[in-house]
Amino acid sequence: MEKPYRRRDLLGIRNLSAQDIIGILDTAENFREISNREIKKVPTLRGKTVINLFFESSTRTRTSFELAAKRLSADAVNISVSSSSVSKGETLLDTALNLDAMAPDCIVVRHSSAGVPHQLAKVSRAAIVNAGDGANEHPTQALLDAMTIREHKKKIEGLKVAIIGDILHSRVARSNIHLLTKLGAKVRVAGPGTLVPNDFGHLIDERDSDNPKSKIQNPKLEVVPKIEDAIEGADVVMILRIQRERQDSAYFPTLREYSIHYGLTNDRLNLAKKDAIVLHPGPMNRGIEISSDVADSSRSLILDQVKYGVAVRMAVLYLATGGSMTSS
Ligand code: CP
């Protein structure tokens, strides 16, 4: 059964309902097998134009949005800041208006400042998809993480998920916390005290997002002091990258100490359930937040995450440009 997709832009997970999220994931399931075909192309988005506007570096997200567009037969154009007129002093808004004047159907944007996709959505006729804005959100990462978890655990509701590391700077953590708690998982976060925001246990519920004074405890989110407490009994262990590019002061003494106290090793992973899976959004700092033993083990689904990223981004582009959501 198909029903119209209510939202054109994808700016974050925070304002999506559980039903929206499940609808996107189900739509992505339908696109999965296209990447296994000998001829990896369908005409679904023929005549549509997608611009990838990346102000920050990216390997996985930009490549998979480009592949997703091309596999759906859309015309895909990639713009990076070094090759654009932003390097000559053009403002972000002028850049967006000029791109919009060329009538793209969708602009995928990554920027180091939180809220940039939201600003572009106010002025653009094209649908805006957030490919990561500062430390705010990375919605397609959370969706591909959810697709990976669903594939291997067959559900999300009731799972115990540990999110470990640099929570403060992590848009991946924010989008995942919104998504996983909306779908009924229990999330425990842990990391150095300097890298876990004080009010993280009080993420504003979407019902109260217009009233900052009405912060309520998210009953499905717990901040725990030690990473061992977060990992114990977990079904899913999600390790975050140390984001040195966003750290403007010393949050921990040395990388070696970080690795000793907060790195995911086999010994620490053994505290999780026997069939626990390990996720990392990439790029990995091997030997710092995750040991190579764990990263290369059968419990690590890091390359599955990348694989499902293409299907998720096909679904997001399809829905953003007017496609209808599949419901199971
Ligand atoms: N996970 C992620 O966003 O990776 P990239 O920075 O390579 O896109």
What do these coordinates show?
With 328 residues, the chain is of the alpha/beta class. The protein has 2 domains: 2-136 and 306-323, Rossmann fold (3-Layer(aba) Sandwich), CATH 3.40.50; 139-305, Rossmann fold (3-Layer(aba) Sandwich), CATH 3.40.50.1370. It is 34% helix and 15% strand. The protein has 11 helices and 11 strands. It has helices at residues 18-32, 60-71, 92-100, 116-123, 139-153, 171-182, 227-231, 255-262, 266-269, 292-295, 302-320, and strands at residues 2-3, 49-54, 75-80, 106-111, 127-133, 160-164, 186-190, 221-223, 236-239, 277-279, 325-326. The strands form 3 sheets. The protein has a 5-stranded parallel sheet with strand order 8-7-6-9-10. Strands 3-2-4-5 form a 4-stranded parallel sheet, sandwiched between helices. The chain has a two-stranded antiparallel ribbon with strand order 1-11. β4, α4 (116-123) and β5 (127-133) form a beta-alpha-beta unit. α1 packs across α5, α5 (139-153) packs across α6 and α5 packs across α11. Mean pLDDT is 90; it is low at 204-208. Bound molecules: phosphoric acid mono(formamide)ester (CP). Phosphoric acid mono(formamide)ester is lined by residues 58-61, 132, 141, 281-283.
Number of helices: 11
Overall tally of structural domains: 2
Mean pLDDT: 90
Helix content, binned percent: 25-40%
SSE order in H/E notation?
EHEHEHEHEHEHEEHEHHEHHE
- Low-confidence stretches are 204-208
Q: What keywords describe this structure?
A:
Rossmann fold; binds phosphoric acid mono(formamide)ester; 11 helices; alpha/beta; 328 residues
